[in-house]
Amino acid sequence: MTQKYIEKILTARVYDVAIESPLERARRLTVRLNNTIWLKREDLQPVFSFKLRGAYNKLYQLSLSGKVKGVIAASAGNHAQGLALSASRLKIPATIVMPKTTPRIKVEAVKSFGAKVVLSGDTYDEASDHAYKLAEKNKLSYIHPYDDPDVIAGQGTVAMEILRQHPEDIDAVFIPVGGGGLIAGMSAFIKYLRPEIKVIGVEPEDAACMAAAFEKNRRVVLNQVGIFADGVAVKQVGRETFRVAKKCVDEVITVSTDEICAAIKDIFDDTRSITEPAGALAVAGIKKYVEQHQLKDKTLIAINSGANMNFDRLRHVSERAELGEHREGLIAVTIPEKPGSFRKFCKTIGKRGITEFNYRYADKTEAHVFAGIQLSEGIAEMEQLVIKLGKAGYPVLCMTENEVAKMHVRYMVGGHGDAIENEVLYRFEFPERPGALLNFLTQIGNRWNISLFHYRNHGAAYGRVLVGLQVLDGDHKALKAFLDGLGYAWWEETDNPAYKMFLGV
After folding, report:
1. What pLDDT does residue 458 have?
2. Is 141 an active-site residue?
């Protein structure tokens, strides 16, 4: 079986459209992880993904009649682009059925290569069902994105290049897994020539169809899959890909969405390029594997499989990356409801950077604060901070692993302050630097009670704060004179309609 794939990989026709992608050393990751990390840059292919290798190899092998009638495929995007480009080069009519959830950047890219796009279903599997029906109805050749020997062989050329580019010792190669085409082709080649190299598949926790198949020793159909890593959002591995993987893959591990986001940032830090979530799976897997097995001084290779990222998804990635890297922790703290409490609380936190600070007056005795804290030493530092706050008399809960807190509550803290009297609202800007928030609170002083507070650090040059203060009618002139003396830019927002509708008394 393996011999058959070696011959097919060595003779695969891929370089009419694909490049031999570079194998680059990830310098920052290498230092951080105490292992030598290499990135196979398939994100640099003409369609920003390895998928065109298998697609072109398959189309090249088609019979003349198959080429004349045209081809059809179902794809979440990368196979679609590879097939569309390949069909364009070979002058073959192509129809691509894509899930309605496919990022717009991928849909537009497919259209730009001249293929007809049909949007159907919310997942790859639903799109695939529709594509099969169209193939039968219109007598088109169905080009499977992964469960086909010629496609598998085309993807296997990635391994052929790696072993030629890095003839020295390699301890493990980490490969993203969706339907299994890439890992099947690569593992067959690696295990035939270099059986001592471990082949490790990496899947998202919410789309782990290969891990489930390994556990049951048979293919299984997942009830549902997450679509954050849309390039690998597959409910069931291929029949042929699983057959090969069982013989050639050492193990499959899973990673969380936050870990994927952190890996996207890691790749950016090393390469200044942005991979899509599926493209960062292998790096996320390396980081997790290194931590779990306490590896040192090993040579590990990750496949950066794609870079077709929707720009608007970067918002989610940037906010979750720090959590996935354990560089940010979330806490909920109860503090006394009295002037000066904020300042005392911030002094207890110390010089740590604060990414977020949310508070809304609830009652006259205590206040609940939701805060994001920058961490330099990961989980251990968060645990130490919780202990420190507890010893200082603050009831505290760590919310770093609380999905509701991470996804929803941090954006919902607030509401109308029904029991608040004489509240006015001000917006401030101040130069952003470590300790800037504490300095701001120190400047505000104890004279007026803070009834609302919201601060977020977006990495900008200036910190932006929204503050509600309880000010008696005869004290407004003194407050404005005080604010002018602070040296910060400020604006009164008491009459702002957004405040009145969602936050005001």
Report:
1. 58
2. no
Which of residues 297, 317, 337 is at a domain's end? 317
Range of the domain at 344: 326-502
Same domain flag for 264 and 294? yes
CATH number at residue 279: 3.40.50.1100
| 127 and 172, same domain (yes or no) | no
Catalytic residue among 8, 40, 49, 51: 51
Spatial separation of the C-alpha atoms in residues 294 and 288, rounded to whole Å:
10
Residues 181 and 292 in one domain: yes
137 a catalytic residue: no
Residues 395 and 443 in one domain: yes
| DSSP strands (E only) in 375-458 | 396-398, 423-431, 449-456
Judgement on whether residues 385 and 337 belong to the same structural domain of the protein:
yes
Domain-terminating residue out of 142, 161, 190: 142
**Do 41 and 138 share a structural domain?**
no
How many whole angstroms separate alpha carbon 110 and alpha carbon 125?
A: 19
User: Can you give the pLDDT at residue 123?
Assistant: 75
Give the total number of structural domains in the chain.
Answer: 3
Contacts of 110 (CB under 8 A, 6+ apart): 77, 80, 81, 84, 96, 98, 117
- The Cβ-side half-sphere exposure at 138, using a 13 Å CA radius, reads 19
Give which of 147, 91, 101, 140 is closest to 123, Cα–Cα: 101
- Which positions ≥6 away from 89 have C-beta within 8 Å? 16, 17, 56
Same domain, 199 and 214: yes
For the record, the structure tokens of 198 come out as 């471990």
- Work out the burial of residue 432: count CB atoms within 10 Å of its CB; fewer than 13 is exposed, 13-18 middle, 19 or more buried: middle
Q: How far apart are CA 469 and CA 422, in angstroms?
A: 8
Q: Which residue has the tokens 């990356």?
A: 321
Rounded-to-integer distance, Cα 304 and Cα 13, Å: 22
Question: Is the domain of 197 the same as that of 277?
Answer: yes
Closest to 201 in 3D by CA, of 58, 322, 305, 128: 305
Ramachandran angles phi, psi of 171, nearest 5°? -85, -40
CA gap 341, 343 in Å, rounded: 5
Q: What is the pLDDT of residue 103?
A: 74
**For the chain (length 505 residues), average pLDDT per consecutive 10?**
87 96 98 97 95 96 79 87 93 91 81 92 84 93 94 98 97 97 98 97 96 96 86 92 97 94 95 95 98 96 92 78 76 81 78 76 76 80 86 85 70 66 84 67 74 71 78 88 83 84 69
Res 404: pLDDT: 67
What is the H or E stretch that residue 437 is in?
A: helix 436-444
**Which listed residue (75, 141, 187, 305) is catalytic?**
305
